[in-house]
Structures are given as C-alpha cells and as structure tokens.
Amino acid sequence: MPAAKPNPQQLTLRLKCHKTTILLLVAPHDSLISIKAKLLEAMKVANISEIQGRALPTSPEDVLLGVLIAKNDPGAGWTDLEIPEKEEGANTKSSVLNASPIGAGLEDGSVLAFKFRTEASDTDDLDMGDNEWDVIMPTFDDEEGSQMKEGEEGSQMEEGEEA
Asked: Which of 2, 30, 113, 158 falls between 20 and 30 A from 132, CA-CA?
C-alpha cells in the first residue's frame, strides 16, 4: 500500500483496539466501509494477523467502529459509530451519519475504537458483548512523571534518588 500524501482536505483518524493504534489518512467523504477496508489493508501491510488472539476478518463488513461517548473522557466508554438502518415499509432508510466521517461528525485526529464480529454469528452478537470495546488508553500520572496504565501503581522515588 503506497504512502498517501497528506493534503488539507484529508483527515487523520486514530483507530484503536487493545494497545494497537493505527493511523489512517482518509478523505472526508470516504465511506465508512472503505475506511474499514483501508484499516484491514494497513494491518495486513504491517504484518498484523491478530489482535489479542482474534484473527483479522477477511471482510470490512466484519469490522465494527466505535466513538467515545464523551469526547474528552475516555473513561466514559465507547458506543457504536454506525447507527442501525431503519426499515419503513418496503424501503430501508439509511442514516446520513453512516455515510462518511464528516456525516458522523469526525474531525482530524479523531479517535475511533475497532473490534471484529465473531465468525460464529451472522447477527450483531460480538465476541466481547454488544457494548464492550477493548481499548487501553495511555494515561500520564503527573505526580509520578511516567506513563502508566489505569489502575497500575508505580514505584515512588525518594527525594535525591536518580532514575
């Protein structure tokens, strides 16, 4: 996959699953399915064949995307990016929010979570449950001066000690 040349009309999206982060350069009007295909292609090029024991799917339709519930609070959790389509009579009504990053309200630098559908199910039942997203966000502990995972305790240094 050749490196894309950035231009002001493109967006950089940060896609996260567990401790893995993939940066994708996308056009604001790319479809979400094409973004999922680019994500799978980027992981294949980087020789990523599985994440946390889950193999990469072969179809972009088996990739699910999530957004932060509270934009500035990763601890609040994630929710599905795509809104289920509504059926009205014989017509299926598609949401404009599912059409593109711009329609979904994404901006340059937006963080998205991703996960994979299970192979055993054709429904929306997922490996981790409907609303669970396996994303570990790095945190910075101001008192310790080091990066730590949430819930991890760091060793404190006495004054005058050197690292």
From this structure: 30
